């Protein structure tokens, strides 16, 4: 079994092939790099319309070569299903991904699978961790969620009340004139910075980043060295994510945490989570960087599980959903697993 995944919710035009039996994933991505400012939906969609067909063709060729090596009949489809990011994301980008996926499904007459991008961010970590029932922290660009599976759904235990965590960091770096994406630059500058105090906002199990961003911009404007503001940002924002993750572990009684999302590539965040988990005796799984940032590999892996359980879409019901929440997804692929 071999599944093609297609991703393109915001910045990464990406296609992947997942070989189910060998559990191998190959990914081909083409990132959108804004010339100035942050992600512009129209420009991002223009990027997707050029880059998605090309990464898909590259991966289909690779799948064809693998199929030929296996001795598959060249008349047969080189893939067994197509999975695509159905949402959440930027509508104009998602529509291009959906169109590409439908075209491939029809060309090869294979099932079409609509994957929730946020659930894919969590499931890829659970897949490679081997953990049964972890708490999942998704720290991505446009989102920030703490989730755990229970009774057929991923339940949102805590989430951002305003912007996504990566977008918040990117807004600060835009203010200081750095190019997008800002997260890696915050990480580099923070290494030589002294901590400065910024507002820490956790309410119950939810967090807010907008006040911290305004305060960080004010600190910078008042002459505080940018390295110090970056350090303060990392310490404050990641401590908030760590606190809520710890409370989620404590309240659910779970003993494992899985990290997901592009901000998860940050070593300081990984370090804080590692320390917190070690203190509680919980396990932590941090996926490889290629699976943390947006990528089609996670779409292909979850798509394969959904397809195996018959969770496929008819073409006429395969509309995208820009506001697709993770807790809207009936989890069909975990039947019989621990709650
Ligand atoms: P979502 O998955 O919510 O749709 P997204 O599409 O923006 O988000 P991701 O690839 O999950 O994409 O995350 C991108 C974000 O990760 C950007 O905001 C970027 O600045 C941030 N980021 C990347 N590397 C780092 C890092 N080392 N430290 C902090 N943030 C980082």
How many structural domains does the protein architecture include? 2
- Beta content comes to 15-25%
CATH architecture descriptor of the largest domain: 2-Layer Sandwich
Q: Name the poorly predicted regions.
A: none
Q: Return Rg in Å.
A: 20 Å
* CATH topology type of the largest domain: Nucleotidyltransferase, domain 5
The total count of helices amounts to: 10
The largest beta-sheet arranges its strands as 3-2-1-4-5
Question: Mind explaining what this structure looks like?
Answer:
The chain is α/β, with parallel strands linked by helices and 339 residues long. It has 2 domains: 161 residues, Nucleotidyltransferase, domain 5 (2-Layer Sandwich), CATH 3.30.420; 160 residues, Nucleotidyltransferase, domain 5 (2-Layer Sandwich). 44% of the residues lie in helices and 19% in strands. The protein has a 5-stranded mixed beta sheet, with helices on both faces. Strands 8-7-6-11-12 form a 5-stranded mixed beta sheet, with helices on both faces. Bound molecules: adenosine-5'-triphosphate.
């Amino acid at each position: 079994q071999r599944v093609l995944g297609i991703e393109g919710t915001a910045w990464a035009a990406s296609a992947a092939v997942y070989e189910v039996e060998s559990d191998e994933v190959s990914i081909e991505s083409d990132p959108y790099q804004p010339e100035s400012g942050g992600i512009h939906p129209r420009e991002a969609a223009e990027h997707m319309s050029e880059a998605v067909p090309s990464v898909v063709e590259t991966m289909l060729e690779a799948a064809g070569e693998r199929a030929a090596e296996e001795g598959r009949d060249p008349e047969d489809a080189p893939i067994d299903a197509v999975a695509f990011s159905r949402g959440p994301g930027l509508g104009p980008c998602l529509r291009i991904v959906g169109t590409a996926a439908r075209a491939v499904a029809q060309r090869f007459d294979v099932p079409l699978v609509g994957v929730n991008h946020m659930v894919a961010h969590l499931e890829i970590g659970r897949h490679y961790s081997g953990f049964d029932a972890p708490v999942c922290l998704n720290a991505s660009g446009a989102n920030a969620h703490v989730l755990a599976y229970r009774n057929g759904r991923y339940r949102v235990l805590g989430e951002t009340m305003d912007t996504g965590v990566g977008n918040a960091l990117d807004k600060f770096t835009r203010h200081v004139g750095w190019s997008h994406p800002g997260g890696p630059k915050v990480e580099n500058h923070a290494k030589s910075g002294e901590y400065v105090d910024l507002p820490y906002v956790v309410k119950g199990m939810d967090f807010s980043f907008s006040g911290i961003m305004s305060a960080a911009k004010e600190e910078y404007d008042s002459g505080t060295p940018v390295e110090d503001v970056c350090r303060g940002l990392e310490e404050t924002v990641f401590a908030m994510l760590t606190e809520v993750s710890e409370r989620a572990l404590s309240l659910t009684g779970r003993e494992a945490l899985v990290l997901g999302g592009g901000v998860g590539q940050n070593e300081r965040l990984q370090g804080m989570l590692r320390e917190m988990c070690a203190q509680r005796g919980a396990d932590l799984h941090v996926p490889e960087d290629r699976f943390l940032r947006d990528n089609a590999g996670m779409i292909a892996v979850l798509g394969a599980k959904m397809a195996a359980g018959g969770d496929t879409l008819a073409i006429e019901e395969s509309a995208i959903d820009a506001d697709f929440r993770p807790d809207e997804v009936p989890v069909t692929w975990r039947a019989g697993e621990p709650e």
